[in-house]
Write a structure and sequence with these properties.
Aminopeptidase, 2 domains, Copper Amine Oxidase, Chain A, domain 1
Length: 333
């Protein structure tokens, strides 16, 4: 609780600062078909100090509440120690580090200055999407006899109870071991007029040592999904859910931060993907990968009811922080 309260204080203090800031980065340069902004200008727009940690390689943007670190040619940065993935790698231009304007406007600014995003959504009806089901088992761990489809439903049911106790209306895309197509999951959320969509999954990898938790939001238009750096034709399409990029980034960041705050798991970051369940939503949405079933240590932990209860609580805590921020943004409007 001390961690949560300290974050609330930081957010409240930050709102006092935000009211006096403009957050506008006027100048940009075109590089490889993308508009980029100088991180020195980003620091100035956000009212932060700019520090060169290693010339032409690593910089820090610092305020009383936030610290952002960027490395050249890397497509991730840290925000107060939490990993966040950019759409395009940090680039070097005229001896200084640059990021795309789209990353600044639709990722960094919404997280650091949410009051600058227009039309804050309401948050009452939450749709939870337990991944897989029925004939689609998802990933599994035979040693501990657990399957992704079973775990995702268990977490969703626990999370539903916690959110309902807070006064939310909560619906599940499936309530038992049945197969639901990817298109039907998004369609369910649209017809239910959801205010937030949370899809719950568990990971697997050929590398049995791979571990940790990651949260995905829909990839920004004209950016590749995390794991790629080159743009393909599919990246040029804009989906209905891209209307909510600002709020998905904010909600996804809060949930991912909450999931890894105890430092007992690897923070794999807030990432971007064009998952089918995220493309056609009419609300902010995210997809959570809550650990690797291919990793025996993580699978053993997830087989325990207490750890699944903790996971559900951490997601609920992240959503609560998102709600508090939405409330403050409305008051400032």
């Amino acid at each position: 609780m001390k961690i949560q309260l300290s974050w609330v204080r930081l957010i409240l203090c930050a709102f006092c600062f935000w009211s006096a800031a403009t957050f506008s980065v006027a100048a940009d340069v075109s590089l490889n078909g993308q508009k980029y902004v100088d991180l020195r200008d980003v620091a100035k727009a956000l009212g932060m100090k700019y520090h060169v940690i290693q010339a032409q390689k690593r910089v820090r943007l610092q305020s009383a509440w936030s610290s952002l670190e960027f490395r050249v040619h890397k497509n991730d940065f840290t925000l107060n120690g939490n990993k966040v993935y950019l759409g395009m790698p940090v680039t070097l231009n005229r001896h200084h580090l640059y990021i795309t304007r789209r990353d600044y406007e639709s990722l960094i600014k919404p997280i650091l200055a949410p009051q600058n995003s227009s039309n804050p959504p309401k948050l009452y009806h939450i749709v939870l999407d337990p991944g897989h089901g029925g004939k689609d088992r998802g990933t599994e761990n035979s040693r501990y006899k657990i399957q992704e489809k079973t775990l995702s439903l268990d977490i969703a049911e626990r999370l539903k109870k916690k959110l309902e106790a807070k006064g939310y209306r909560v619906s599940l895309t499936r309530t038992k071991d049945t197969f639901v197509s990817l298109d039907d999951r998004g369609r369910f959320a649209r017809h239910a007029q959801a205010d937030l969509f949370v899809s719950i999954h568990f990971n697997a990898a050929q590398n049995k040592k791979a571990s940790g938790i990651e949260t995905y939001v829909l990839t920004l238009p004209m950016h590749p999904s995390s794991g790629r750096t080159k743009i393909v034709n599919a990246d040029k399409k804009t989906y209905p859910s891209n209307r909510y990029d600002h709020w998905s980034a904010l909600a996804g960041f809060y949930v991912q931060r909450s999931l890894v705050q105890n430092k007992h798991t690897v923070d794999r970051g807030l990432k971007h993907a064009r998952f089918a369940v995220l493309k056609e939503l009419n609300c902010p949405g995210m997809l959570i990968e809550g650990g690797f079933l291919s990793n025996d240590a993580e699978a053993r932990g997830l087989s325990a009811s207490s750890q699944r209860e903790q996971l559900a609580q951490q997601i609920a805590d992240g959503i609560s922080t998102y709600q508090k921020t939405l409330n403050r943004v409305r008051k400032k409007s």
